[in-house]
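From the pipeline queue, job 12 of 40. The input is one protein chain; the requested action is below.

Action: predict structure.
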Amino acid sequence: VGNILMANLYYNLEKDYYKMLEVMHEILEVEANIIPVTTQRAYIRAVLWNGEVIESQDRISNVASYTAGIADLELMEDSKHAYQHKNVFKAIKQADYIIITPGDLFTSIISNFVIGGVSDVIKKSDAKIIYIGNSTNKGGETQWLTHLDIINKIERFLGRKIDIFICNNKKLELTLEEKQSFQSNISVKGGDYLYLSKGEKKELEARKVKVFEAPLLDAHTFYKHDKKALTELLEKIL
């Protein structure tokens, strides 16, 4: 519904992207300031360990059958000049904290950092970086990755280390039927829960990353974060 509304406004406001965003804020009574990372063409492609290339966000996230893990993510040829939205620089420069939220590693998180100028301004920022880890990995896209593997990927594309890592430590006891339902979800696709090992925690603390573990799972979806629990934890940290 959001996409349909945005498209309708865009074409009825003489294709003025900024005016469309302004009206969306008003309609939805958004108190925060939502800024797209870019308004330019920005199609991505993933390069696998074996050299195979998977083009477009939807294929990377939902369609492709993986023969190997993702080694690299980059903009496609017709998107090489995609540059950050004019307000992204200002927002990052003013930030005390940059919070990287849960989401598909390559198509929802790292895809933002390959846009021109984004990682450069984050590298120069004095803001502390908080990364909220996913509760699971995902079939295909991050099937074999651990928390530490994912953090290493994020730091590589971000161009600097994270300062604070938040992750779930609550283990749900699921029935066979519940587990099948959970793993068949399009956001999980056969993946499984991620838990921080003692070795990973020791490694992160050696890097001077502050680690916060807490029961963060939403018992209704089995994989999403409990918004209230996460908000309360973030309030304590901030």
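Job complete. Strands lie at 44-48, 53-55, 70-75, 97-100, 128-132, 164-168, 210-214.
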